């Protein structure tokens, strides 16, 4: 497969101002006629050749200026025409087979309905087209089909007309007035029902809102939270970013077969059911948050992505990083800012940091790819958001808003670049981002080393930075790193104000006067920079910050650091028994303070109780021994649970008395309740089994029920079996809840977890054709260290077998399973060999997809 390089970008020689599509719909066969009005693009190098991308389709006929022609050739999957004049009309007819489309890209069938997924390069599986984001067109879409099978016919924009056809068919015509790239095209046809509402925009325009689900499934009652979230997002975007919605309708359709979370097609968002449906009986508090966040994310794309789109796919972070930041700020405003920041940083450290230190590392604006689907990554999305967040930290919220306003005004209706965004931010916010641009071009998580020296009344902070080498980037330059810091007086427990310092050299020192006694340093408060901090801090400083820091993120950070430092030493074998006991006692003391602190709300308390993840701990070590990390982490938990058993039981009892509601207090209570069980399961399994079984039976909501079942799934008593059988029988037929049932077992701490996964793969409800189900079983196992890193190598073999089986059906989903195996260089040698062998077995398979092939080659490379 050929490599596409950012530096090779050239404007397309032809503009396509208008497109008319005509669909004759059928599940087995759909006929598509596309009429493209094309004219030469004066901004591009002239060429008479019009290249229309295709993927797995053939033209039935081709017309130029209304006359059928044979003057076309295929160049691989693409159709080439030579056009003599300045402007022409080009028509192409194709026939496609939605029901046979297991890749879920292009037009496909899902439970009897037809829907599309065109980002990034799915439109070319529907018809021949310049399928690149810098070709913007207005679309008119006519579709006709059986009125019984497809009573609802939807596309982008506004419904223009509709009517009855012959033989029980009907038709509809939609027109989208906003020019858009082909990746934002969408069509849905099916037997759907909708929750409807309206939103009046800030300029007084009434927008009809609808959320569609399959008729007769009971799903309609579960769309209330999604609708409320949408309305809140529309209002927030007006108030915080000054962005108004621009069509008369906004439709959302929920689909159960979907490769990713959702898709921001203009005026017709298509969602994985997972991010639409929620009610207390079937969705956890986490699910509620995810629905709110993804609904907002896709809605916000209407400006950051649709009105201003991307010039090419190297600019993906322009829309994704920016939109993730926007959805993070929204969710922070809707709930607890501190808890949201902690959750976002946990994802960054657990997923993006490992990506940045492994073989798949790439800058947020990549330089080359073979398959663009492989670059929808935590780096492009989450680190991309962090990079824009840093601009906001540097400018402050008001000036940042000015930069955003300028960006939207200047590039409205255009296909823009990351450089355009940076320039608008420089001019609008008044920043000099010359050196900052390195955040776009350099991969790798910077490591900042800090040493504090105290002499007389002077404090010196000596900082240095190192950006590690990554594939293809052996040498790095220092980047500007904004760090919020505060110096605490441990006696008074106060500091003299937070300061923002920017480390923009390889080494620098920052001096503070007037500190008669040595202060305690709180650094990277609010996680202002996506970096790893290395410093030698006394345990007593961490204990102090964990109890007293007035920045909630920094308090959480101190708690994490306390545990990370201890576990790193414990895993390396450098602790005597006595030192280990001392370390555990210090952590127990800090946890006891967290449990007793009445100023803390339970949502925040719950965060402070969560131990650093296995993934984050592994990241701290050059070469990790997953068995040792898992063993030490669990042993620490058991010790803490024994030391604090009474407190955890009391916490569980207190929280269990709080009745169900979606209030922060009730959500906090549910969070700490399950946290208490997780600890007790390690320290006193018999007691935990009893308490979890009681929680399971008493549950009147999915958060409590799932929390209890998760704990039981890892235990070996009889309650485990009872609860698992009960859960399945209670929810069979509800796909999203059955996904939970698969996940909880595959992610469990049970010693026979791999046997359970094998048995579940044979369960009648398991299927390789539904990505949610595949992820529920296999991704849960691949991120479960005790299962995936089983010393036998069986976890690696099972993932490799899955990839080989899934690749011919759904390469995009298959390729996502390569990354866990790709970590082999950072794992101890015995397991590393087994992981590499699994990758080599995949690489040796004949006819791998471009998606999986690219990831495997990079992982071995
Ligand atoms: N912009 C959307 C990306 C997406 C996608 C990409 C590749 C293959 C399938 C896909 N489905 C959705 C989602 C988003 O980030 O908003
Ligand atoms: Zn997005």
Sketch the major β-sheet.
Answer: 8 strands, mixed
CATH architecture identity of the largest domain: Sandwich
What is CATH's topology name of the largest domain?
Immunoglobulin-like
CATH H level, superfamily name of the largest domain: tricorn interacting facor f3 domain
Major beta sheet, strand line-up:
6-5-9-3-2-12-15-14
Q: Give the overall silhouette.
A: globular
Give the bound compounds.
Answer: (3S)-3-amino-4-(1H-indol-3-yl)butanoic acid, zinc ion
Kindly provide the name of the CATH class of the largest domain: Mainly Beta
Q: Report the sheet-strand fraction.
A: 15-25%
Q: Gyration radius, to the nearest Å? A: 28 Å
Instruction: State the separation between the terminal residues, measured CA to CA.
Output: 16 Å
User: Percentage of helical residues?
Assistant: 40-55%
Q: Low-confidence parts lasting 5 or more residues at pLDDT below 50? A: none
User: What is the overall number of helices?
Assistant: 28
Which class do the helix and strand fractions yield? alpha+beta
Number of strands: 32
- Mean pLDDT, all residues: 98
How many structural units, i.e. domains? 6
């Amino acid at each position: 497969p050929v490599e596409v390089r950012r530096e090779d970008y050239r404007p397309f020689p032809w503009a396509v101002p208008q497109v008319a599509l005509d669909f004759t719909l059928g599940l087995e066969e759909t006929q598509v006629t596309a009429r493209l009005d094309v004219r030469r693009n004066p901004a591009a190098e002239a060429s008479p050749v019009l290249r229309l991308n295709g993927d797995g389709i053939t033209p039935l006929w081709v017309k130029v200026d209304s006359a059928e022609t044979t003057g076309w050739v295929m160049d691989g999957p693409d159709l080439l025409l030579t056009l003599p004049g300045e402007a022409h009309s080009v028509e192409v007819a194709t026939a496609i087979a939605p029901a046979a489309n297991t890749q879920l890209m292009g037009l496909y069938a899902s439970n009897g309905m037809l829907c599309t997924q065109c980002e990034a390069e799915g439109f070319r599986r529907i018809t021949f087209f310049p399928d690149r984001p810098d070709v913007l067109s207005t679309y008119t879409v006519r579709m006709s089909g059986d009125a019984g099978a497809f009573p609802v016919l939807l596309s982008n924009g506004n419904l223009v007309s509709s009517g009855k056809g012959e033989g029980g068919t009907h038709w509809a015509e939609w027109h989208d007035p906003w020019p858009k790239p082909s990746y934002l095209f969408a069509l849905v046809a099916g037997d759907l029902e909708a929750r409807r509402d309206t939103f009046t925009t800030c300029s007084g325009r009434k927008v009809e809102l609808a959320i569609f689900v399959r008729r007769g499934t009971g799903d309609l009652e579960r769309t209330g939270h999604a609708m409320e979230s949408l309305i809140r997002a529309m209002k927030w975007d007006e108030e915080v970013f000054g962005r108004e919605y621009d069509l008369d309708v906004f439709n959302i359709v929920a689909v159960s077969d979907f490769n990713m979370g959702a898709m921001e097609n203009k005026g017709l968002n298509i969602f994985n059911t997972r991010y639409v449906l929620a009610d207390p009986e079937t969705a956890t508090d986490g699910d509620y948050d995810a629905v709110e966040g993804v609904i907002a994310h896709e809605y916000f794309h209407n400006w950051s992505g649709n009105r201003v789109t991307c010039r090419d796919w190297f600019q993906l972070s322009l829309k994704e990083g920016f939109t993730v930041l926007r959805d993070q700020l929204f969710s922070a405003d809707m709930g607890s800012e501190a808890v949201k920041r902690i959750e976002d940083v946990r994802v960054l450290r657990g997923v993006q940091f490992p990506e940045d230190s492994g073989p798949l590392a790439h800058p947020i604006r990549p330089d080359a790819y073979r398959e663009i689907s492989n670059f929808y990554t935590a780096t492009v999305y989450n680190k991309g958001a962090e990079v824009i967040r840093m601009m906001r930290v540097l400018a402050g919220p008001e000036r940042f808003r000015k930069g955003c306003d300028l960006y939207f005004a200047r590039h409205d209706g255009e296909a823009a670049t990351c450089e355009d965004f940076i320039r608008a931010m420089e001019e609008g916010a008044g920043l000099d981002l010359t050196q900052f641009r390195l955040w776009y071009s350099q991969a790798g998580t910077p490591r900042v080393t800090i040493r504090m020296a105290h002499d007389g009344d002077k404090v010196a902070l000596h900082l240095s930075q190192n950006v590690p080498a990554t594939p293809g980037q052996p040498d790095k330059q220092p980047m500007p790193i904004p760090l919020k810091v505060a110096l605490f007086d441990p006696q008074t427990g106060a500091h003299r104000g937070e300061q923002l310092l920017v480390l923009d050299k390889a080494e620098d020192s920052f001096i503070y006067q007037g500190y008669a006694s040595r202060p305690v340093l709180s650094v990277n408060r609010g996680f202002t920079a996506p970096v790893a901090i290395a410093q030698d801090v006394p345990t007593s400083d961490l204990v102090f910050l964990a109890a007293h820091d007035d920045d909630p993120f920094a308090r959480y950070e101190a708690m994490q650091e306390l545990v990370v430092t201890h576990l790193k030493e414990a895993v390396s074998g450098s602790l005597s028994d006595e030192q280990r006991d001392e370390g555990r006692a210090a952590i127990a003391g800090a946890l006891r303070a967290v449990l007793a602190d009445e100023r803390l709300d339970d949502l925040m308390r719950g965060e402070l109780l969560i131990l650093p993840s296995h993934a984050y701990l592994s990241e701290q070590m050059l070469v990790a021994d997953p068995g040792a990390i898992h063993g030490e982490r669990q042993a620490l938990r058991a010790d803490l649970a024994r030391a604090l058993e009474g407190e955890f039981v009391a916490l569980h009892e207190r929280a269990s008395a709080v009745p169900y509601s979606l209030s922060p207090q009730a959500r906090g209570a549910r969070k700490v309740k399950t946290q208490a069980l997780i600890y007790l399961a390690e320290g006193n399994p018999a007691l935990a089994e009893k308490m979890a079984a009681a929680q399971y039976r008493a549950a009147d909501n999915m958060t409590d029920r799932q929390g209890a079942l998760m704990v039981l799934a890892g235990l070996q008593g009889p309650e485990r079996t009872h609860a698992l059988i009960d859960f399945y029988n209670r929810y069979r037929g509800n796909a999203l809840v059955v996904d939970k049932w698969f996940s909880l077992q595959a992610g469990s701490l049970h010693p026979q977890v791999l046997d359970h996964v094998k048995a579940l793969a044979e369960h009648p409800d398991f299927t390789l054709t539904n990505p949610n189900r595949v992820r529920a079983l296999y991704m849960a196992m691949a991120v479960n260290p005790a299962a995936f890193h089983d010393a036998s190598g069986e976890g690696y073999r099972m993932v490799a077998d899955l990839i080989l089986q899934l690749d011919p059906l759904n390469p995009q989903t298959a390729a996502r399973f390569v990354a866990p195996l790709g970590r082999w260089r950072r794992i101890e040698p015995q397991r590393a060999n087994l992981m590499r062998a699994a990758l080599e077995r995949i690489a040796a398979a004949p006819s791998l997809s471009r998606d999986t092939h690219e990831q495997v080659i990079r992982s071995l490379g």
